[in-house]
Write a structure and sequence with these properties.
Order of helices and strands: EEEHHHEEEHEEHHHEEH
Distance between the termini: 55 Å
Number of domains: 2
Shape: elongated
Largest sheet: 5 strands, mixed
Oligomer: single chain
CATH topology of the largest domain: Lambda Exonuclease, Chain A
CATH class of the largest domain: Alpha Beta
Length: 309
């Protein structure tokens, strides 16, 4: 197959006003739509001063990395660029384009931070994030963001295929208390199917409210009060039972009893003891030359959930 050359969409991006224009028509960006449809409380309680400072820092990191990708000699020596180089080497990322514009040609347009070529017709898309903490909501938002990019990317480049979506989490910002908040990480996110992405874009363009298929189902949401009640009952029962057991143990110790029993209940006292534990993690570090495989026993652990009330 012939090597695909990425198409120029013809969209004009105004970085100052952050607007997209195609043949005189203004197109909508993706970020505002995601906040409107899926993440309306993303910046709740955060001051404009903090938001502006975060935006300025993010812009500076993006620009430093972009300059390096366009000209390897243009390395400003920042830790962020050094970390970016390490990530590219670790994951074998071959830069194809920065701030690559994608659009549906009618309503939507956006710039992809990074496009990496993985084959004649395959590409990896990446987004650089400079957050202090990658919360579950932030991870989910960038998953939607990159999935939309992939949908539009393949719309623009008909014969191209996106094989991976990567988040590059890069940060080296000085803390007020001293030192640096240093993060240099990359992780893959699972692509959201094209039909769901299209539904989101079409719904917003029509002025509707998108129903997120990945959101908590209504039937689970309706069970919240019952879960809360059961959790409170369990906690109260655990507390009362612990108090009863403590009193019984104190009585058995005072009377030097090993067991007590009724027709339907048996109480057995365990004597005080010590327990020794083997620190396997430390032993592995101190004895890296030993192969533990013959002594390992692997068992399957069933999946579970944790509910926090």
């Amino acid at each position: 197959m012939a090597k695909i050359t990425l198409k120029n969409t013809g969209v004009i991006f105004d970085a100052t006003n952050h607007t997209y224009t195609l043949k005189g028509q203004t197109l909508s960006g993706i970020t505002g739509m995601l906040q409107r449809q899926l993440f309306p409380d993303e910046f709740a309680g955060i001051s404009d001063e903090v938001l502006n400072a975060a935006a300025d820092y993010g812009t500076s990191v993006h620009e430093s990395i972009e300059r390096f990708d366009l000209n390897w000699a243009d390395n400003d020596g920042t830790q962020e660029v050094a970390d970016y180089i390490d990530i590219c080497l670790k994951y074998g990322l071959n830069h194809e384009a920065s701030e690559y514009n994608v659009t549906d040609g009618k309503v939507w347009a956006s710039n992809i931070d990074k496009v990496y070529r993985t084959g004649d017709d395959t590409f990896t898309l990446a987004d650089i994030k400079t957050y202090g903490q990658m919360t579950p909501d932030k991870r989910e938002k960038v998953r939607w963001q990159l999935s939309i990019y992939a949908y539009l990317f393949e719309l623009v480049n008909k014969k191209a295929h996106v094989d991976k979506l990567l988040v590059l989490h890069i940060r080296n910002k000085q803390k007020r208390t001293g030192g640096y908040d240093h993060i240099a990480n990359a992780f893959e996110v699972t692509r959201i199917p094209a039909e769901i992405v299209k539904d989101l874009l079409d719904t917003d363009a029509a002025g509707g409210q998108f129903k997120n298929p990945y959101a908590i189902p209504d039937e689970v949401r309706d069970m919240e009060q019952r879960i809360r009640e059961l959790t409170q009952q369990r906690d109260a029962a655990d507390k009362e039972l612990a108090e009863i057991k403590a009193k019984i143990l104190a009585d058995m110790v005072a009377k030097e009893q090993k067991t007590w029993a009724t027709d339907t209940m048996r109480i057995t006292r365990k004597y005080e003891s010590t327990r020794a534990a083997f620190d396997l993690k430390r032993f592995r570090v101190e004895h890296p030359d030993i192969d533990f495989t013959p002594y390992e026993s692997v068992t399957r652990v069933a999946g579970s959930i944790t509910i926090t009330i």
